[in-house]
Amino acid sequence: MNDILVETRDLCKTYRSGSRITDVLRNIRFVIKKNEFITISGASGAGKSTLLHILGLLDDPTSGTVVFQGTDIKSFSEGKRSFLRNTAIGFIFQFFNLLPEFTALENVLLPALIEKDGNVAQKKERARSLLDSVGVGHRLTHKPSELSGGEQQRVAIARALMNRPEIILADEPTGNLDRQSGLGVIDLLKSLHSSSGQTIVMVTHNSALAGIGTRHLNMADGTLVTQ
Ligand SMILES: Nc1ncnc2c1ncn2[C@@H]1O[C@H](COP(=O)(O)OP(=O)(O)OP(=O)(O)O)[C@@H](O)[C@H]1O
Ligand SMILES: [Mg+2]
User: Fold this and answer.
1) What atom of ligand 1 comes closest to residue 172's alpha carbon?
2) Ligand 1: distance of its center to the CA of 45 in Å?
């Protein structure tokens, strides 16, 4: 079954503080196949971001595990996990998370510079061309504070794509954008999926966006339900 990219096995996330126990994820089992565009919606606090962070190796489950391209991530060293985070996973955050002191071009280039192999001039050219393709090629030397929200999110998308990730994980990528910029970002994600088969998992509050992918899941009470 090599079309399975990611599989979760009985993922649970529980927070404990004194006698207070919060079960955020309850036995999540699901499979992400290559080329899928999955949308996940659900009420605030349902556990969507928690799930996405665990899928992106930004957080650990309390129990259960994530199997990435056939290998249980628990068997990976921290070094291998950071390598995967940087090269196989592209994360797009609601608040863009660009580095404020760096230009748009530098923000996109950085994930590639972390990997020491390859030619820096070629990497720079790729960063430039990605920024061009997401529509901010005219803002290369602008820092995040000199960009609009929509432009910052486009830079963040270019950054997520820089190392040719297997999967894009987007947490409310339009949550902080006006309607027009949000539609632009959605069009961009849709075209990444349709033109290059990019696998995408996108969390969204917006019910109008729930149907734009190939599969829609709803999260309630820490479990996922197919819609
Ligand atoms: N450190 C913590 N201790 C206790 N509970 C926590 C902690 N961190 C998160 N939670 C709880 O986990 C639940 C899920 O949070 P999460 O951010 O995943 O929700 P979400 O579905 O992304 O919500 P939203 O749509 O508002 O972004 C929330 O109810 C939150 O209160
Ligand atoms: Mg969230």
Assistant:
1) 27
2) 5
- Under 8 Å CB-to-CB from 34, ≥6 apart: which residues? 3, 4, 5, 166, 197, 199
Residue closest via CA to ligand 1's atom 8 equals: 15
Structural domains in the chain (count): 1
User: pLDDT by residue for the chain (227 residues), tens digit each?
Assistant: 569 999 999 999 999 999 999 999 999 999 999 999 999 999 999 999 999 999 999 999 999 999 999 999 999 999 999 999 999 999 999 999 999 999 999 999 999 999 888 899 999 999 999 999 999 999 999 999 999 999 999 999 999 999 999 999 999 999 988 888 889 889 999 999 999 999 999 999 888 898 999 999 999 989 998 86
CATH of the domain at 166: 3.40.50.300
Where does residue 227 rank: exposed (0-12), middle (13-18), buried (19+ CB within 10 A)? exposed
* pTM, full prediction: 0.95
Enclosing domain of residue 182:
4-226
